[in-house]
From TrEMBL:
Family to which this protein belongs: Belongs to the glycosyltransferase 87 family.
InterPro entries the record matches: GT87
Keyword Cell membrane among UniProt keywords: yes
TM regions (residue ranges): 12-30, 105-125, 137-153, 159-185, 206-225, 286-306, 318-342, 354-373, 393-413
Keywords (A to Z) from UniProt: Cell membrane, Membrane, Transferase, Transmembrane, Transmembrane helix
Species whose genome carries this gene: Methylobacter tundripaludum
Stretch forming the signal peptide: none
Protein known as: Uncharacterized protein DUF2029
Pfam families: GT87
Length: 450
């Protein structure tokens, strides 16, 4: 446990090493940029696209065709958040996304402030109470300098808001927990899988509350935003079935799931590249093996949750579900790895904590500076340097290692839960969410290992 005194020197030494590695990575990125005029791997190969996750979506805040023409897979809440940010930081309300970016310097500044503020707020939540001030100070800088966080910053992705809601989900109970999950679902729909928690606990009232709150937020924001907001569901279905939606360079910039490997091997370009070293039968078998491995581990994790539900704490359920989500597929996005910051206090109480911390460190540190593949892709107009530059695209070591480490993290977590042999006792009674506004309702126990 992190509070044990003999842990303190080890924790501080571990944190210091990860911090120094991230500082070295930041120095490398800055030096590379000043020397070459663009950011290296893992930042997306299209150097004119910086912050465009933010401004592509921002453009559709003011266009009623967001669901009919653009086919948006973002729930209405996200558009309201962006509208609020644009208003507060005096951004542009007209023009195409590129024009809006060029005329919204304060919005970019504001997004940077949010980027810096969210980890600070996360570290202030209940689950971090056992960490000392100097430990949290170092952890803060590890977070904001970690490669997945810097990747999310460069993209301008709204996922940076999710960690604080997840931290509150872990720290709160009852109605507040249900509300946080509902808001997360309306930020990124894949967070609906967090509701498995209520099924594991057999808390049907909590499940009904969370479902009702999620639907209520969706309908209220949808009615206020767009008459066509129900097209969101059709867009989401089409998005999930569309093949070849992402370029190979996009997929391999920072993948979180080993499905990135099968995606590359199934694509014509990836298959052609692999055929120089492997037969077509071997490529086909590799695709099958990769997907079979992924789904086997996902199923094992769900079995662990339901089979050992009486042996695990609420926070451990959410921990496993978060890692489950990031392993699902390429559509989740590599920036989802920033969510792992909220898991550190949970993992610190588990048996193989040092193994988990080692895996998280590998995900966080800048191993992408080690190139595996390099090729020139011609000149691009680089937004950050405002110049035309010859771009040499690289695929770094992190693109291969992170998905493997992530599936290992899920498997080891599942194994630790599956092999628990002792029943748990409750140290206190806590209330879970009742139906909608009807108070806390069903009582449940928070379990701790004996």
């Amino acid at each position: 446990m992190i509070s044990s005194e003999n842990w303190r020197p080890k924790v501080l030494a571990y944190l210091s090493i990860v911090f120094l590695l991230n500082i070295a990575g930041l120095w490398y990125y800055i030096d590379y940029f000043t020397s070459n005029g663009y950011l290296p791997s893992p930042f997306v190969y299209d150097k004119s696209d910086t912050f465009m996750d933010l401004f592509n979506t921002m453009y559709w805040v003011y266009d009623d065709g967001r669901y009919t023409d653009w086919g948006s897979v973002y729930p209405p809440l996200g558009f309201f958040i962006l509208k609020f940010i644009n208003f507060v930081f005096d951004g542009s309300y007209s023009g195409d996304p590129g024009y809006m970016r060029d005329n919204s310097a304060f919005v970019i500044f504001g997004f940077g402030l949010v980027y810096l503020l969210i980890p600070f707020l996360v570290l202030k939540t209940k689950y971090w109470q056992e960490f000392l001030g100097n430990e949290k100070f170092i952890i803060y800088f590890i977070i904001i300098l970690s490669t997945p966080m810097l990747f999310a910053l460069e993209r301008g992705n709204m996922i940076v808001l999710a960690p604080i809601l997840l931290a509150l989900t872990l720290s709160r109970i009852g109605f507040l927990r249900a509300l946080c999950i509902a808001l997360l679902i309306n930020l990124k729909p894949y967070f609906a899988l967090l509701m498995i928690y209520y099924l594991v606990r057999r808390n049907w009232k909590g499940f009904a509350t969370c479902s009702s709150l999620s639907g209520l937020v969706f309908v209220i924001t949808g009615l206020a935003l767009d008459n066509h907001f129900f097209d969101f569901f059709m867009n989401l279905l089409s998005f999930s079935q569309e093949e070849g939606l992402f370029s190979l360079r996009e997929v391999m910039s920072m993948p979180s799931s080993i499905s990135a490997f099968s995606y590359v091997l199934k694509s014509p370009d990836g298959s052609e590249f692999a055929s120089a070293h492997l037969s077509s039968l071997m490529i086909k078998n590799m695709v099958i093996a990769i997907e079979a491995t992924k789904w086997a581990v996902l199923i094992i994790s769900l079995v662990a949750l339901f089979k050992k539900s009486m042996f695990i704490r609420d926070a451990e359920i959410f921990c496993l579900l978060l890692v489950f989500i990031t392993n699902l597929g390429i559509w989740v996005g590599g920036y989802s790895l920033i969510l792992y910051v909220v898991l550190i206090p949970v993992l610190s109480k588990m048996h193989t904590r040092w193994l988990y911390f080692s895996l998280l460190a590998i995900i966080a540190i800048p191993i992408d500076v080690i190139p595996l593949i390099e090729n020139s892709i011609g000149q691009q107009n680089v937004y950050l340097s405002a110049s035309m530059v010859d771009i040499k695209w690289t695929m770094g070591l992190g693109s291969v290692v992170r998905p493997v480490v992530n599936i290992m993290l899920l498997l080891i977590l599942s194994y630790e839960i599956l092999v628990r042999k002792h029943k748990c006792v409750s140290d206190k009674i806590e209330h879970h969410a009742g139906f909608l506004f009807g108070g806390y309702g069903l009582e449940g126990k928070v379990y701790h290992n004996v």
